[in-house]
Amino acid sequence: MTFLIDGYNLMHAVGLLRPGVPELATAVKDRPATIRVVFDAGSAPRASPETEYRGVRVLFAFRETADDLIEALLLAENVPAHLTVVSNDTRLQAAGRRRGSAVNSCEQFVEWLIEESSESAPRNLQPDKPDQNANANEMAAWLAAFSTPKRKKRPPRS
Fold first, then answer.
1. What is the C-alpha separation between 115 and 117, in angstroms, rounded?
2. Highest-scoring range by mean pLDDT, 47-51, 58-62, 70-74
3. Under 8 Å between Cβ of 84 and 104
4. Helix (H) or strand (E) holding 56
5. Is the C or the N end of the chain the one with fewer CB within 10 Å?
6. How far is the C-alpha of 96 from the C-alpha of 109, rounded, in Å?
7. How many whole angstroms separate alpha carbon 26 and alpha carbon 38?
8. What residues contact residue 144 under an 8 Å CB cut-off, 6+ apart?
9. Predicted TM-score (pTM) of this structure
10. Cα–Cα distance between 83 and 99 in angstroms, integer?
C-alpha cells in the first residue's frame, strides 16, 4: 500500500502540530506502507529530487501544484488500487476514486496513525456503497426501514 499525501493539506487539517498527533516518520515506522508526501514548491528556484526522511518519501512539486503532481502520480501508477490518496481536497479525492484508489481524508489518516494496533494496513474508511445486487426481499426491507411512515387515516368526525 502506498499513500499519496497532500502535505500542506494534511498539515493544515491537523493544525500543524496538534497535541496527540504523532510525528509522521515515527508513526509509520512499523506499518506496512510506503508514505509519499507531496508539497507545493511552485516558486522554488529549481527542481529537487524525491528525498527520504526516516522512511517517509518527500516530493516537492516544481512548476506545478502538489495537486497536479499527485494526479500525475495517480495516472502513472500501473496498479492504482495499491494507492491511497490522503487529502481533504475534493478534486484529489475524485481523481483517486476515478483511478480505483482508496481515498482517506486527512482526519481519517491521522486516526489510523494514532490507533494503537499496527497489525494491519488501514482500511478504506469511506462508507461502503450499498450492494447493487440486492434481491426483492432485501430491497423491501431497506425501503420499509428508511421510508417515511404512512400516516394513519383519522376516523371521520361525527
1. 6
2. 70-74
3. yes
4. strand 56-61
5. C
6. 15
7. 18
8. none
9. 0.64
10. 9
The pLDDT value given to residue 75:
95
Phi and psi torsions of 8, nearest 5°: -65, -35
Instruction: Specify the DSSP element, H or E, that contains 52.
Output: strand 51-53
- The pLDDT of residue 152: 52
Q: Report residue 116's pLDDT band, with 50, 70 and 90 as the boundaries.
A: very low
Domain boundaries, the chain: 2-123
Q: What stretches of 28-152 show up as alpha helix (H) in DSSP?
A: 66-76, 90-99, 106-114, 136-146
Instruction: Decide if pLDDT at 80 tops 90.
Output: yes
Per-residue pLDDT tens digits for 65-78: 999 999 999 999 99
**CATH architecture of the domain covering 2-123:** 3-Layer(aba) Sandwich (3.40)
Decide which of 138 and 40 is more confident.
Answer: 40
